[in-house]
Amino acid sequence: MFNTLKKSSPLLFAAAFTAFSMTACNTPNSTTTPGGNGTGTASITGTVTKDDGSMASNATVVLIQQASGKDSDFDIVSSGSDGNYSFSKVPAGKYRVAFVIQSAADRKNGVPQAYDPAGKTGQYYGAITTDYFDYNGDTTKTFQVPAFNVGWIANLKPHNETVNGNNDVKISWSSAKNADTYNVIVKDDNDNQVYKSDNTDSTEADIPGSKLKHGTKYNYIVNVIFPKGGAAPAITYGNSANANFTFQ
Predict the structure, then answer these.
(1) Can you give the residue range of the structural domain that contains 207?
(2) What is the pTM of this model?
């Protein structure tokens, strides 16, 4: 759902997100705690934080419902100045919660996420998601989601460069804290996937030159897969914003 590479225009997030890094393993266990008002407004809450420990305001968070094996956005909210967000009037069901780099308006309108909030393409998470969890809709309690620390600085290379078309293309990135494995997805400018690497615990992967066409520009992202288990619902998956190269 989150590895879209289509282009979009930078929007609202430049001030809200600066130099982050991922710390998913330090998230608290998901719990239900007193706090609902008992009037049918059961809520799912959490926080979005930055690398320096401060709260991330205006972050877009999506509550995704799964029904009949299909995902759909149940609600889209923005975090407040304290980094907190809340989904209310949530019925019992199967859900996951995701941070996305889009503005709330772009998410609602289906505008793809290919940019990052500071205008440094490929430098920040494009999305992070929890695993699915069952929510019982208890209107007397609040369901607490593990905190999202949303900032992996990926340092994707190459980016906005022309590479030698006589060789394979070596993609490299900085490690994401607590990551288990990574993979790379490469698409052409028409959003056609041309290559997906195997999962690796390395921070680099070779893209076969035989999969690429000379004189063509390609976009790519790096996906991060986190270990199963841990806090429930665990943060399980993320991906970078996109970078690009021209295969000359």
Answers:
(1) 161-247
(2) 0.77
